[in-house]
């Protein structure tokens, strides 16, 4: 009788271990198994030009994304996906202004959760690892990281920075991080020790909000938009509040110019940039080789294109 009880206990323990392991695998699959990378297929003439990146490396290398060309990756934020208005516009802008491959990291099955702190943030490491693995796969096929450009917004900006760091310090040529998420990051001491400038050779950060955006201003160039990077006169209800406007400013900047201005008197800066050239502008067309580093300020307007494109030579009150 005692022996049967002991055997039963052992069997129960084994079942518990198997269930825990299997449950852990299934939980991981729910996070990483639904992530997709889509690419813009320039060969298609229909409206659905975003297609899944082929799972087969040979098919990937022979697709419309050529390993010998430049590439860009867009990483969306919380409660967004490939159908988000600004993502659709940015794919179009990148294809018009940048030759080569355009991809989107689509993790909407995870990002569409209402519970940012309970259901999305705890999976940040797994999401960053998936991006790093995708970059390693691209490199193994023949893509050159020195020809890579990654844009991320909010949580996507943090993923772009961390995924690129895990891929290799400063291997990616450039990252444009649009109002990187602050909640869940600024309060974690380990995160504060990570230098965004190590994620790529050139890192441009664009700040538009104080409530959802990071307090950090330590990218190669850090733009404070509107009211000191804290809020915007164009802010509307979600999803186009001060935070959500950042990618809309970036999209506008493909055509319209957001120039630097002298630091407004009410704004504070610990790394104020000096001596910028008159033609310097925020966005994809920012000349990251201009020799300028530190914080820049740029005024915004209430309505599209969110800038009056004026070059300032005087002082700002």
From TrEMBL:
- In this protein, which residues make up the domain named Lipase? 32-221
Concerning SUPFAM superfamilies, the annotation shows: alpha/beta-Hydrolases (SSF53474)
Location within or outside the cell: Secreted
Give the superkingdom in one word: Eukaryota
Q: Name one Pfam family in it.
A: Lipase
An example GO CC term for this entry is: extracellular region
Record keywords: Secreted, Signal
Signal peptide positions are 1-27
**Which family does this protein fall into?**
Belongs to the AB hydrolase superfamily. Lipase family.
Q: Which organism does this record belong to?
A: Culex pipiens pipiens
The protein, known as: Lipase domain-containing protein
- State the coiled-coil residue ranges: none
